[in-house]
Amino acid sequence: MLIEKNYATINKNAYFDKGEAINMPEENVRKKVVLSGIQPSGIPHLGNYIGAIRNWKRMEDEFDCLYMIANMHSITVRQDPAKLRRQTYEGFATLLAAGLDPEKSILFVQNQVPAHAELAWILNCYTMFGEMSRMTQFKDKSAKNAENINVGLFTYPVLMAADILLYQADAVPVGADQKQHVEIARDIAQRFNSIYGDTFTLPEPYIPEAGARIMSLADPDKKMSKSDDNPNACVLVSDSKDDIIRKFRRAVTDSGSEVRRGEGKSGINNLITIYSVASGKSAEEVEREFEGKGYGDFKLACGEAVADFLRPFRENIDRYMADKAHLDALFKLGAERAARIARRTVEKAEKRVGFIKKP
Ligand code: TRP
Known about the structure:
- With 359 residues, the protein is mostly helical.
- The chain is built from 13 helices and 5 strands.
- The longest helix has 30 residues, at 324-353.
- The chain binds tryptophan.
């Protein structure tokens, strides 16, 4: 769970609401700030939706949330410009379709808030070459992309640290693969604070519970991923009902026959998780419902439940995508609200390192 801190004593001038630099009265304890980002990789798949985006919605009431489309991170690998632009809209439409409220949470596109690039440069100078070389994702990605190991890919975690520290985020919901990046953001913040005095809140990674980890339908020991070579491995939110049913019918299961969770039954465990989320029933209820029935019946039921579960979400994405002007207006709203907060942090950091105030 999220860490408890005495919020009345930190960030008194980082009052989130409306981003105004007001001094909070001592007794007015602020809500914790949650920030997360998602790269614009187009229409999400079932795992993205269940594992990440739906959780973001759940945090909206309890925390002051900022959610960002991380398009600056995207260009660390080569992108088609028109496609990146379209996917940025789709990413934003996805957040809205998941029910996030653009007036309550701050929803924005990373490149539209210049402070991200500004702070990233400063933080680059407080991050060690060795630290970055040890990042697992950098090692993986540079092995996969041997022809384009650019410096942006190398310093990717520094930009991510800027994303987080700009908003004095307390908690950063991420998948397990991004935990190391949040930890390095914390290290960088700590280093800067110890030289210049308190400037940044130290963030904590927040990894949602394991139940929400959706695995590939073709190889249930691997995470569901859009880049899987097997098209049946991954259910896209944009898939038709027929496609979804077909993919579940082909889902890989073990040689057993009972719809019951168990050791070494990663295929059926995954399907039970998925069915449970899609139907809103607990895993025990699912096991009871399919008592005496075979895998075939269960897979069909999974396909139908998932298709019904995803339909309203997909229709909402389509509806938002049909009105670009509305999305542009929301980009503007989000960028302005984010920039107001981010600017304060950047100006503080600039002053601390000895920069001359911007005119
Ligand atoms: N790197 C993250 C990913 O690929 C996306 C991201 C960018 C992010 N900036 C962030 C996540 C800040 C959390 C906080 O999944």
